[in-house]
Amino acid sequence: MGIVREVNGMFELTEELPRSQYYNRDLAPVRLEKRTWGYYEYFAMWVGMSVCVPTWMLAASMIAAGFDWVTSVFTIFLGNLIVLIPMILNSFAGTKYGIPFPVFLRSGFGVLGANIPALIRGIIAIGWFGIQTMIMGFAIDGILVALFPSYATLDSIVPFFQLKAHVVWSFMMSWVMNVVICYVSPPHKASPGIKWLNNLSSPILIVIGVGLLWWAVDKAGGWGPILNQPQTASWSKWPAFLTAMVAYWSTLAINIPDLTRFAKNQKVQYMGQAIGLPPTMTAYSFIGLAVTSATVVIYGKAVWDPVELSIMTGNPFFIFVGLIFIILATLTTNITANMVSPINDFMNLAPKVLNWERTTILISLLGILMEPWRFLADPGKYVWTWLLGYGAFTGGIAGVIIADYWIIRKNSLKLHDIYIKDGYYDFHDNKVNPIAVVYALILVVATVALYFSGAILGDPKTWPSILTTLILVLGLIAGIFFYVSKTKGVNFCGVLALFSGVVGSLVLSKLSAALAQWTWFVGAIVGYIAYIVLYRAWYGKHHPEIPT
Description:
By secondary structure, the protein is mainly α. The protein has a single domain (about 5-540), classed as Hydantoin permease (Orthogonal Bundle), CATH 1.10.4160. About 65% of the residues lie in helices and about 0% in strands. The protein has a two-stranded antiparallel sheet. Strand 3 and strand 4 (about 165) form a beta hairpin. Helix 3 packs across helix 17 (about 380-410). The longest helix has about 35 residues, at about 265-300.
């Protein structure tokens, strides 16, 4: 259509679509002249996201489990190299069409059905937002108490948080900083605050990281005993950690169009990401291990927490530098990785009501309501419950969208239709298929059975398990309703394929302890195969492929 313009293989809309219920200026394709992110922006983006306390915690979890430092660092590198593949595959559509993740989902799930996987991804991101904000809050609190001891006298217990008042005040400081920067960075302005923050923080974080490594090694007179620690862990535990490393950035692997929509061209985004992600994660994990090793010599015990380490120095300068480091590291990670996606995802529910600014406030409040401090109270939940749990979901979504864009659509979308009702992605040719409905009901029954057997995120009484089950059941029921009622806007093949990946992954994990450690991979493979089979069986010539 004439409303779509192509320049050097990149597309934009030449007119706005104010009457469309699926369109607003923040979900719209980024104008070509505003696609200004280059190599450095994407490299800086990944430096900013990789350098954070949770990355430090990943390496620490493997050392604590009995793996040596070589195995730990290699596992982190391999996991990030693996997740880079689906990340690059999904990034192309964002750059080519300037579209965010929930709009990209409309191809595989329909203009209305896209809300199901978008909300799943959004809820996961809100959980991460809360966790990172809480980590930053704890860091601010520890350093403020060290600098101003009287701050600790604010020790009354705040009812909802069940935390001391000074901890809650520190958490709210962290929360406000994240919200403000994101609030002033709407996509229609090419997210200036996020771009500025990443570009500024990247060199500072690199310098501080190298400086911290130099200080620790010099102070300890060597690398310390941890780097010489023999491996005591069984290799049977290794797949779980590899899956956790993949799951760590599997969220970004699916919603990466949210960020690559600002790229000047394809080359700058995939080269910037390839240079930025695996090397940075690996290098920073090594710094964490080496510094921790040195603390054994310096203080007689392993200090894994960089905040605790800065405080233990007793030097106000080092404490202040630690504060700057934690704030920058957490802000760059939290805003880019955990706020951009859920804002776009929730905005997609009602584009005419929810704009960027309103949705920023909404997801920020939801991040508090998810009570992230409960996760941090039990480190075991971090890797096993959280990362492995949502890996099945992100794997299923990744499988569907890769199959749809690269196999079914052959790397081509109808940009105008993806924003309108009664267009190509409205899937108005749905016909009630009894077999499909029965299949979906079987998935619902399997989900409920898995819940009561404790296969979903462990103990069925815990809120993560309850939340996961609700997402699965409600998503499937919604899909069945849309399909049976012939509601337009839903690609039932995508909905079924997604939940096939999730349920299949959980079923296999229940049957085999070995497969339980590969949730992301199983979910992605099952989702990928199920989508291709279901789509070609149901639509065939009735919903023809777009010509290349």
